[in-house]
Amino acid sequence: MLKLKIHIDLLECGTDEAGRGCLAGPVTAAAVILPDDFSHPWLTDSKQLSEKKRMELKAIIEEQAISYGVSHIMMDEIDKINILNASILGMHRSITKLCPQPQFIAIDGNRFKPYHKTPYECIIKGDSKYLHIAAASILAKTYRDAYMTKLHEEFPMYNWKQNKGYPTREHREAIKKFGITYYHRKSFKLVPAQLELDF
After folding, report:
1. pTM, 2 dp
2. Is the model's pLDDT at 190 over the cut of 80?
């Protein structure tokens, strides 16, 4: 069973990101402060849930959270500062949107940079251990998926509606055939042979 948070006596947020390993689209981060009496039997790491359950949980989290924030870090910024820094920047921007501001930050993963002077802790697989990190993973995943589904309408040949920009064989084959778009991350190895691609 997931724990609510690390420090029961502090106003604590959980934060996570989605899309770090994708070839196209933003990396999306979310931060969530849940009330101390929050619980839900489904809530866990977003990757373990069906799309239907994620969408139902998204609505519940947005309705019941004390506060939440979501931020997209776009491809040009990812290419400029690298994906790790972009992921952390997305978390910072999401935390900035929280009101009230947290007294402690719980992060999924093992890397973070100080957010002002707020104490924090990185937790490996935190989205399967703490409810507020799991909630952040749900929001990051659902907001990013919605963004990629919208981009699919502009570039249906990459099937982003299905693969969400991840490096599936279908996506890589489409890159070989059609080249890259503005939404592709140019700092990433887009095809195994690293072909010369036209923008």
Report:
1. 0.93
2. no
